[in-house]
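Observation: inputs received (chain + alpha-L-sorbopyranose).
Thought: call the complex predictor directly.
Action: predict_structure
Action Input:
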Amino acid sequence: MKEIKIALLGGGFMGKAHSLAYATAPLAAKLGVKVTKEVLVDVDPERAIDAAQSFGWNSSTTDWREVVARDDIDVIDICTPPQFHAEIALAAIAAGKHVFVEKPITNDAAEAEKITRAAAANGSVVAQVGFNYRHTSAVEFTKQLLASGRLGIPLQFRGTYLTDGGLFSMGPKAWRRSKKTGGSGTVGDIGSHVIDSAEYLFGDIVRVAARARAGRPNEGWMAESDRIAQDALESAGVWVAEFANGAIGTFAVNGYSAGRKNRLYWELDASRGSVEFNWNNREEFRVAYVDEDAQHRGSMMILTDTAHPNGVWDLAGLGVGYVDVSSIQFQKFFRRILGEEIEVPTFASATHVQHVVEAVYRAAASDAWVDVPSVEVS
Ligand code: SOE
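Observation:
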């Protein structure tokens, strides 16, 4: 049995999710690989030791460079703040390691292009990005419905990602609130997920017009001129988009939306049907087909079944959670290492997401529509 030895960089929230997912990924899909959680790296020596012990890693260290240089490590999994992703990914690719990077791929599309090119130039490296939500059964099934033509021509996408996390203390996740410590702002952090969902389902976004706002909600939004002058991280954003396939879309993200708990929600209309998905009720999705007879025309709620993609259990109705979708993304990653071709969030697709994020920022600082560049990999 092939052994895959992992080094995880970052002992925080996402490091925990990945650690749990590594335990079930090979087992759930009977992959025929032995996944070894070899070493956990964190710059904070106490957290490195503590996270390695509590998340089940064989050892810990504070030095990622020493780990990247080790011959026995097969995979570098980067869960650090995004500002460190590019440097680490480039070193890992140069050392011939497979690389898994959390989203956003970086906070800078030029850096993202660089690591995408480096990975493409090293044919043996398998690279993937942690847009975990798209591995939910309902999302992947919607993709199949679109690809098969069952839904007809894509017309309109409406996506939101709302949380109330910003209203409360963020504890160890407070680094996300500042650019200096690698924070991304809501468009880059949670907006990147909804952009990935939209592009996965409808293809590339090519133009956007946008508004963003920063500030603490109990003081109202900061004056827009101050937000732009201070280059402050945005707490909320809205944008209108055009897709390359002719569809149109609207998007909204907000970290101060009371009562909304990690609510990634989208609905789409196509010429022969529409679909509605809410991560909070991820076992359900709603589909309406235009060609139903008049008595049955309407939105039907479908509960995820074993007939849909990415079942974790071979019994419907047992529930799928955050760690499960992470486990599914690693199953795909390992199957790709074993040589299978599977559609996943790649460095190139994640770089395009980052181009959209940056186009939203440029559009929000102007009254203009902004074009989204395509990703040049060669
Ligand atoms: C933001 O609060 C966040 O932690 C995102 O960064 C993650 O990608 C998302 O999965 C959960 O929410």
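Thought: report the result.
Final Answer: The chain has a mean pLDDT of 95. Residues 103, 163, 165, 189-190, 262 surround alpha-L-sorbopyranose (CB under 6 Å).
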